Every structure is written in C-alpha cells, then in structure tokens.
Amino acid sequence: MKLSSPEAYLDSLKDLERDVFVLGERCSCTVEHPMIRPSANAVSESYDIGEEPEAEDLLFTTSHLTGRKISRFTHIHQGTEDLVDKVLMQRMLGRRTATCFQRCVGMDGFNALYSVTYECDQAHGTGYHGRLKDYLEWVQDENVVVEGAMTDVKGDRSLRPGEQPDPDVFVHIVERVPGGIVVRGAKAHQTGALNSHEILVMPTTAMREGEEDFAVSFAIPADSKGITFVLGRQPSDTRKMEGGPLDVGNPGYGSQEALVIFEDVFVPEERVFMCGEVDQSGKVVERFASFHRQSYGGCKVGVGDVIIGAAQLAAEYQGAARASHVRDKITEMIHLNETLFCCGIACSSRGHEMPAGNWDVDALLANICKLNVTRFPFEIARLLQDIAGGLVVTMPSEKDFANPETAAYLEKYLKGVEGVPTLDRMKIMKFIENMTVGCGAAAYLTESIHGAGSPQAQRIMISRLADIGEKVALAKKIAGIE
Ligand code: SF4
Ligand code: FE
After folding, report:
1. Helices then strands, each counted (H, E), the chain
2. Ranges for all domains in the chain classified under CATH 1.20.140.10
3. Whole-angstrom distance, CA of residue 91 vs CA of residue 345
4. Residue to mutate, 91, 194, 295, ligand 1, most ligand atoms under 8 Å from C-beta
5. Would you say domain 283-479 falls under CATH 1.10.3720.10?
6. How far is CA 18 from CA 32, 56, 73, 271, in A?
7. Where would you tag: which of 71, 276, 330, 400 has the fewest CB atoms within 10 A of its CB?
C-alpha cells in the first residue's frame, strides 16, 4: 500500500489541485483549512493502526484480486466474516473520532458495482467488470480514498430525470467521444468529498428506457478538469476558526460534505462502469443502499459509545450519577445503541454470495438497521441533553475562562463536584453541545436520518422485501382458515 500512514495520507491531499470554495472564497489547500482539517483527521484514522488490539485485523485484510495486504476500505467482501468485520471496524472508528470518518461510501460503492458490473456483462456483453477490477487493484495498491457519489441534486422531485427543465440536475452523459464520455451535473451532500483522491459516481435512482444518458457510473481523480467543490456549512462550524479547542467540543475530528459540480468532465473509457444500461442502474442503487444501511449499524454505534460515556461523565461531574432516573436513562441509551449494533451484525451474518463471487448483506435486515438509525440516535441525543442540563447551551465561551476579569467567577460558579476541575466539566458540556446541536449533530443526527437514504426509502424497501403473503399463509394455517 503506497499510502501507509495518517501523515502520508494527509500530505497526499496537498497534491490535489482542485477548484474548492469555502465560505465564498477559493481554498487552495483544504487540509490546512481549520474548518476542514478535523474532517481530514477523521479520515486519517482509517490509516492508523491505533491502540485497539483488534485494529490491525479490522483495518487491513488481504486482497482477493492480488493476495496483497490492503485497507478494508478498498476490499470486496468475501464472506460473512468480512461483512461483520466491516461493521466492527466502523464501530471502532466511530469510537475513536465521535464523527463520520467518511471513507465508507466509496467502499460500499465498489461492493455494489462489483456484482452489478458482473451481471451487466452477462446480460449485455459489456466489459465493465474487468475494468472495475483493474481500477480496484490500483486503488488497493495506492490505498487512496475514494468518495462514493450517488445523490443527484434532483431539481423538481415530481419529474423524472429526462423531464426536468434543466437536465443537469441529474448527472448525465452530454457527449460520447473517442476514448470516453463527457459528463455534466452535480452531486449533493458528498461526504468526505474534499478528503478524497478519487470520485466514484453512481446513478441516483433506477433509470428507465429513454433515460440512457443518466444511467452512468464512472471513477475519476478528484482533481479532474471541470470539477468544482463547494463546502457545505454546519452549525457553529466557524468556531473552528476562533483558535481555541474548548468551544469546538470535538476539536480533533469532524465530518464534511460538499456540493460537487461536474461541468463537462471527460471520463476515459477504462474508468466507465455503466454507460446507458438502464436495467442495471436500480441494482446499483439498491445494493449500495443496503451496504451503507449496514454501515450505520457500526459507525453510529461507535459514536453512540462516546455519547453514552459523555452522559455518564456529565452526571458524575455534577453529582447526579447515582440518581436512579439518571441510571435508567443511561441504561436506555445503551439499550438503543446496542440494538443498532445488533441490526448491523444481523444483516452481515445473514449475508449471501452473489454470482460475481462477492458477498452482499441481507437487504431486509440492513433496511431495518437504517430505519432504526433514523430514530434511535435522536432519542439517545435527547436523553443526553436531559442528563446534561441547560448548561449545554448557556455556557460562556472559552475566552471568558481566559479573561482574568471573569475566570475566577466561572471557576467558582460553574463548578460541580469537588475534585473535578470546572474546565473538565465545561469540556464535556461543549462536547455534548457539539454532538446534539453543533457540527457533530450533522454527523450524528442529520446523517442518521438522511444518510444512505431518508426513512421513506427504507420503508419502501422493507415493504417490498418482507414477504407479507407468506405471513398471511402462516396466520391462516394456525387459525385453521382454508
Ligand atoms: Fe462511514 Fe458512517 Fe460516515 Fe457513512 S456515515 S461514511 S458509514 S462513518
Ligand atoms: Fe453517511
């Protein structure tokens, strides 16, 4: 693996020459930008062997293509053990960072495309599967970060891609030229876009006949000509530019989303994995969604572990930890968090082999997992705020703790139990603020509801995948109905 340390990864981002805009200004080096750096730090944890005894086996594995050691983030799952290890890895990184570490979308994209390109070649005589494997081999050896790009901006939701007044609201092929294609459009909410070396584009929905130009999948370097990135804002994000760590709450890590615009971008043929095969596009969406809905049963649970720890600390620091209602609430938080983990493990353990030889999760259980993720983190966050109290949003700033005119007052009047420095109590309060109403809430809450598809998308899949007719037959048999 060429990139083999967090430092090497962070350094490599400096080589990308991209059109990036942050707060209305061009940004030439994203990794040095104080609003972006914490999100790059979170991705860099995927390169760090860390302190956990199981980390090496979770973060790295063996390529089925080359037999060489690779990052699990570039791996094609070869059995249920791989699927379970993926979830364990995500929980581990969630615990380390308390945020979205962004690298899973590309991994889930590869795994979806791996089986679909194989089936597309069988159905249409295309040569996408071999191309994808060549690309994967390169990604694995270089150990680059690949952003998975699925969500189109979509314009008027009541209109199909081909019916939009502006066709560019769905990424599409504008020209087929010798040696490749030219594409235009934009992908929204692109997790980790500014921390990625490559972009793997997939269709956003199942395309129909007549929508061939929209049934397109490809990979390109993030600094290809014609791509523009505009960073999305998060609540209290500019606190990262104020200099002090306290008010940020989670100063080391963060997440990041961007709008990624493709303005007549040339994609060479060898990086095109779908080009007009409308019957294959829906499969990419469904399989990718299932993998990413599985992912949430790992990453959000890891973040939940940190949150539960913060609730316990906040209670201890103010002398409330022994109150029975506080203990009950923390038990409830654990129950909800581990329920999500059960879902992540269940859909992995019940995975199955695909015709291409890779392994997919159980799609019904993965959708159940994600639908629970659209609810439980909100309840966990509510309980966290309940335990922590109003100081979460009324606490003075770090600068007031530094000002000699106010510091002694804050030390005296914001103190909790004896033996705990006031500043430690404030640190955990600011962390709780970050996770429930600040930047961290973007990753823990908003992403939980909309990432990998909004709740309605899971409901549709659940009603389609659950065999209701079979359940009716069971009830009839038990009740003696002919
Ligand atoms: Fe990975 Fe979770 Fe972030 Fe998705 S939301 S990229 S699964 S950490
Ligand atoms: Fe996500």
Report:
1. 18, 14
2. 283-479
3. 11
4. 295
5. no
6. 14, 33, 24, 20
7. 400
Tokens of 369: 């997992």
| 334/336 Cα distance (integer angstroms) | 5
Q: What are phi and psi of 76, to 5 degrees?
A: -100, 120
Amino acid identity of residue 357, one-letter, is G
Residues 70-125 have pLDDT tens digits of 999 999 999 999 999 999 999 999 999 999 999 999 999 999 999 999 999 999 99
How far apart, in Å, are the Cα atoms of 3 and each of 150, 207, 240?
26, 37, 28
| Contacts of residue 444, Cβ cutoff 8 Å, sequence gap at least 6 | 99, 300, 303, 307, 377, 381, 435, 436
What is the CA(103)–ligand 1 centre distance, in A?
7
- Residue identifier of the C-alpha nearest atom 3 of ligand 1: 100
- 154 HSE (CA, 13 A, CB side): 10
Is 173 in contact with 216 (CB distance < 8 Å)? yes
Q: What would the two tokens of residue 232 be? A: 């999305």
Candidates 266, 262, 281; CA nearest to 176 is 266
Ligand 1 atom closest to Cα of residue 300: 2
- For the record, the structure tokens of 236 come out as 């209290």
Residue 71 bridge partners (DSSP): 60
Neighbours of ion ligand 2 (CB under 5 A): 447, 451
Residues with a catalytic annotation lie at 100, 104, 191, 257, 292, 296, 299, 447
Amino acid of residue 52: E
Stated pTM of the model: 0.97
Q: At what angle do helices 422-436 and 278-317 cross, to 10 degrees?
A: 160
CATH topology of domain 6-278: Butyryl-CoA Dehydrogenase, subunit A; domain 2 (2.40.110)
Say if residues 384 and 307 touch (Cβ distance below 8 Å): yes
CA of 291 to the centre of ligand 2 (A): 11
- Tokens standing for 467? 């065999």
Tens digits of per-residue pLDDT, 210-268?
999 999 999 999 999 999 999 999 999 999 999 899 999 999 999 999 999 999 999 99
Q: Which residue has the CA at smallest separation from atom 5 of ligand 1?
A: 100
Please state, as a whole number, how many other Cβ atoms lie within 10 Å of the Cβ of residue 270. Answer: 15
d(CA 333, CA 382): 10
List Cα–Cα distances, 284 to 24, 228, 325, 449, in angstroms: 35, 25, 46, 21
Q: Name the segment(s) of the chain with CATH classification 2.40.110.10.
A: 6-278
Question: Ligand 1 centre and the CA of 406: distance in Å?
Answer: 41
The answer to whether 37 and 6 have CB atoms below 8 angstroms apart is no
State the Cα–Cα distance between residues 128 and 92, nearest whole angstrom: 34
* CB atoms closer than 10 angstroms to residue 124: 13
Q: What spacing in Å lies between the alpha carbon of 298 and ligand 2's midpoint?
A: 11
